[in-house]
Amino acid sequence: MSSATLPRSTQSWQAADSAHFLHPFTDFQSLAKAGARIITRAEGIYLWDSDGHRLLDAMSGLWCVNVGYGQQSLVDAAAKQMLQLPFYNAFFQTATPPAIELAELLAAITPPQFQHVFFTGSGSEGNDTVVRMVRRYWDILGQPERQVIISRNNAYHGSTMAGASLGGMSGMHAQGGLPIPNIVHIEQPYWAALGQGMSRDAFGLMAAGWLEDRILALGADKVAAFIGEPIQGAGGVIIPPATYWPEIERICDKYGILLVSDEVICGFGRTGHWFGCETFGFKPDLMTFAKGVTSGYVPLGGVMVGERIARVLIEQGGEFEHGYTYSGHPVACAVALANIRLIQQQDLVGHVHDDVGPYLAQAFASLLDHPLVGDAETCGLMGAILLVKNKAGLVPFNPEVGIGMVCRGHCFANGLVMRAVGNRMIIAPPLVITRLQIDELTGLIRRCLDLTLVDAQREKWI
Ligand code: PXG
């Protein structure tokens, strides 16, 4: 659809938007001043806005459109299910075929300890479920004093009261009296910021050791669980050293603490395996998922529940007093089934692992010669570029410059959606991306880095 055939002009959309729509994570006044960019359609890895501009969507919507835009089989699955049975609940001893089939398929594609799933409407609701479930588990086992959940600074686990509490974003904690009780945070495994002068592997062991220190300080009999994203996404694509997760697992095992992997971003092929825990070689007791389970075509989330927990809940727990209207929504589950089958049929996980993942790693390595690039790393189809003032010693820009946002501005103007998190430029493109499209992406990134360098020199930030 070109702008000419749209029923309203961009200006009219923007006026109505700022008059009525409170956007998530947004400074409402500055958005009203700037006017929202109105996205009207998409195909493959590209978006179009209401002025007809094309953008390469290197963020997969918001880390979710794994199979790319415009996949007919997902659309057909939704339409068929809506006609047959648009909704029925799973509360009062009822179920619908799509929810049952999806549960069966998830049990097959997740690591073998997972045979059960609890469905939610989003990743945040999934993590709320995790909090209630791990505390319920320890209650049933007669250890109700095991309440504390340990998470990490700069983690993102959602925006509900429990999700934002688990997250380690100080700005979020400052609004609304968070975190809720008995959620504590340790430092993140961010080598470029905290591990200078150490090898990555030595730093990974040290960062995992912070978990053991905290467990000992709290008393192991007070600790219920540890939660982490295999790779921190919203925190800036922080890829931990290879030594980190196996050591975290060893420590959780040593003290009998439940290990939760938040796979909302890393799940469904993003890192080159079905799940991030497989890429990093650890075995969680619970796994939160959302986003890529439906490629974002409709909302769905959930928690994979390991047999250690499921057996206790099922055999000794009685009623688990938790659930959502949309737990197991038939249309969402039908779309998830079509999405996962498409990932299987097109072997998108192998495509990331063997082909475009290594190709993106090479492309990012080629950017290391750029004067602004202090570090460039990838895992599967997640990538981050660290912008620095001086490559020697990774000297950061003054935060007031907002170097990431300057670069992001050039990206938008040049037809590329790339996200800025502080001084890190991050990408997570659809898994269907081709080598040729990665060449296009890399060319656009280089152009935007060059334009950012010109600004930095002109403004004497460098
Ligand atoms: N866990 C993780 C690891 C996430 O990335 C959630 C939970 C919450 O999911 P819902 O579906 O409730 O949003 C997320 C969501 C960003 C950004 O700025 C990232 C997310 C959401 C919004 C913005 O990168 N991730």
Keywords:
462 residues, alpha/beta, 42% helix, binds 3-[O-phosphonopyridoxyl]--amino-benzoic acid
What does this protein look like?
By secondary structure, the chain is an alpha/beta fold. The chain has two domains: 44-67 and 347-458, Aspartate Aminotransferase, domain 1; 72-345, Aspartate Aminotransferase, domain 2 (3-Layer(aba) Sandwich). The protein is 42% helix and 16% strand. The protein is built from 17 helices and 15 strands. It has helices at residues 10-20, 28-34, 60-63, 72-84, 97-109, 123-140, 161-166, 170-173, 191-194, 200-218, 244-255, 276-280, 307-316, 330-345, 348-366, 403-413, 435-458, and strands at 39-43, 46-49, 54-57, 114-120, 148-152, 183-186, 223-228, 258-262, 286-289, 301-306, 373-379, 382-387, 416-417, 419-421, 424-427. A seven-stranded mixed beta sheet has the order 4-10-9-8-7-5-6, with helices on both faces. Strands 1-2-3-13 form a four-stranded mixed beta sheet. Strands 11-12-15-14 form a four-stranded antiparallel beta sheet, covered by helices on one side. A hairpin with a 2-residue loop joins strand 14 and strand 15 (424-427). Helix 15 (348-366) packs parallel to helix 17. The longest helix has 24 residues, at 435-458. The chain starts with 9 loop residues before the first helix and ends with a helix. The structure holds 3-[O-phosphonopyridoxyl]--amino-benzoic acid. The site of 3-[O-phosphonopyridoxyl]--amino-benzoic acid (PXG) has 17 residues, from helix 6.
